[in-house]
Amino acid sequence: MVRKAALVVIVLLVTATPARAGTGSFQARDDIGSFRARDVIGSFRARDVIGGDVAGAGRFPWAVRLSMGCGGALTAPRVVLTAGHCAGPSGPNTRITVTAGATDLKARSAITVRSVAVFRSPDFVTETSGDDWAVIRLDRELAVPTLPITRENVDTGEFTVMGWGQTRETALRQERRLHYATVPAIPDKQCAAAYRKFGVKLVEDESICAGRHGVDTCQGDSGGPMVGRDRSGRWTQIGIVSWGLGCARDGYFGVYTQIAKFRAEIEEATSRFS
Ligand code: ARG
Known about the structure:
This protein has 274 residues and is of the alpha+beta class.
């Protein structure tokens, strides 16, 4: 019973639905936002993503913004990889607007395209239960660099995370400019122990936890890429922003889909949509 109540609370705090922000308005969804503003504990001021920096023009060129208030990355010229909880069910879908080719969503170089279809992991239920990935087919190919998926199952070290989401847990606002931060991966056991107290069971082998007090992704960053450098120094995608208890809190970490676990499925879905 207590466990169930705790689960309800955490599900509300981690947003089952992403912040509804059009690329035009940059407003987080009010109902969830104000709930959070009233109920969060320990809010504090920090900088960007949370505790990060603004990405200059041309940086992370494969990062895209999705109109439901999420992020994503171009895995192929016509395919975006995002979180399952951002994308909706598999099938035809022309409702998503994708903004690509600019870190500043209002830059003249920003390109907008529409979705035509979604393929979401058939095992997806909710973001805290793993399998939180989906691919979106665009209405055309983009002449924008793509981001390869990791060939190695790495889950230790430091990674770069990014998004146009909230820069504070209570910000209730999305950003016009892409923000990024470097975060250390946290051992699954330590992360799982923290979330267990809230009645949430971390799906350890499908998740990478990362962050530190004051540095994290936040609402509206979901679906965006967690990246690292491969052996030749090129960015490769390691994770997808999925969920967390609040943002950047002491002892609680951002949870990312460990995409190495889904590499074959993601690549198959990507080539079908290309
Ligand atoms: N679920 C959120 C979204 O839809 C992402 C939350 C990430 N939270 C965190 N503490 N890292 O945007």
